[in-house]
Amino acid sequence: MPSYVLSCCSTADVTREWLDDRDIKYLYFNYYLNGEMCKDDFGATNSPAELYAKMLAGAEAKTSQISAGDYMAHFEQYLSQGLDVVHLTLSSGISGTYNSACAARDQLAEKYPDHHVYVVDSLAASSGYGLLMDRLAGLRDSGMGAAELAAWAEEHKGEVQHWFFSSDLTFFIRGGRISKAAGLVGGMLKICPLMDVAPDGSLAVKEKIRTKAKAINRVVEKMVELAEGGRDYSGKCFISQSECLADAQEVARRIEETFPRLDGRVEIFPIGATIGVHTGPGTVATFFWGQRRA
Fold this sequence. Notes:
The chain is an alpha/beta fold. It has helices spanning 16-21, 48-56, 68-79, 97-109, 126-141, 146-156, 170-174, 180-188, 212-226, 245-258, 273-279; strands at 4-9, 25-27, 29-33, 36-40, 61-64, 84-89, 117-121, 160-166, 191-197, 203-210, 237-241, 267-270, 283-289.
């Protein structure tokens, strides 16, 4: 049995059952709907359909990062059992939660001098963060120790590729990520912006593609270009989606056709509330292992 626990946040956008099965511990982000605090708890409080319906009806939605106090409580339950902790946070380019986790680690260090909390900024988001956790769980299960695992994560986290598009720009406009004028033109021209996560962990618009069908084609092309081994890619592929399952299934079908050596079927997960508050419905995100992001 390892002498440490592997941990992440609910923003890894997998499922509670998936995390439990991989023995990955987790804690919840929070978000607010019309001033009421809710847990980003894999859709238990508000299913994705309920969340987006409320947002489209005009509910004010805001995200709230995990506090240092919440991190302290999470870490201490394991430190008090004599276990170390390897915790990966949501990308610092999206959230300040990495700083909160580091503050909690530092405050606990004096109380537990013989045990360690290793905090790693994943520089990843949604199920790309989940894909990284999947690899780390495998390395842990193969016998890798806590310090070595944290170092491996630091060295290789930039190899998780994130490519996503949205067919509904409503909440990108509302959140200020796309101007109203650009959003109006984009809607009229059926523009689906193709985005990725930059090396610093922030979101970046890479291409403006006309029509969803072409956006799907382009995601598969980017995977051929960037995946480890090209068309011979033999790793895993995760997809997350916000109330557009048919679009995600079409991307998955195309990927499985194009990459015959893929490790299993493409796994599709719902985008959780923290990310979904910013994307709204209509976003499909594809994640795989490949070249270091540049």
